[in-house]
Write the structure tokens for this entry.
Amino acid sequence: MSQYDDVAACTLDLNEGLQQAHLELISAHCATHQLRLRYSSDDLVRFGRRDLLRKSAKAASDLSEFYSSLEKKIPPVSPVAASVEPSPEMIAQAVGWLSKYLRQQRDHYAPVASPLPPEVKARLWSFFSPEILESIRYVELRGARVTVPDFFPQVRALGFEPPPITHMDSLTFLDVIVFNQEFSERSLFHALVHAVQIRILGLERYAELWVQSFIRTRVHFTVPLEVHAFSLASKLLHPVDRFSVEDQVMRWMLDGRY
């Protein structure tokens, strides 16, 4: 192996590690965001376990110091356009863009997609109905990336930064899940939550809620549809009792949490 190959391999390992850390940070961010929505800081300090609060604060402080030192060394990027408050017509157009893109990508990948492996379905029956698991197909791109939507330049022109879909582990196109790299069970779980959301809400309503929330929060991983997917997928990191994702999604829908 040449010196160039060594450097390329080390760079690949570095960025894979960075990507994994990024996903863990997003999961922690989502969990913390839910705490902030449900409880005041006074309640957390008064009723929360003080050992957990101190450990969490220390971990967050250490991470903030580390990433802040890195951020200072990152070359500046060109300024983005000032944000524009979208009109109802623009929001409706964005919903149409998203719905059309999800359908087009589903139709593009469906012919080459495969059913979930039996052993994977067996491990997920505690969380998803057999109907969902049997209907899902998946594709591993292995080195390729999902096509970036052609409407992203219009989104940026309004001052919004679209989701980095080429860096996401998985994307859900209705009943077809596409992995930008290789299959992973946690990414599959996240994608399956979105498949359930789309099935229960309907594609148009799903797209409408996603766009409206993104306009409000301006960060894709704080969109409630994403927060819920991250939150449920994070349960795979620890032993958990059986729960129905369909029931969880239905409850969030009925409670108006999306």
Summary: The first strand starts at residue 114 and ends at 115. Confidence is low (pLDDT under 50) at residues 1-9, 77-82. The chain has two domains: 3-71, 88-254.
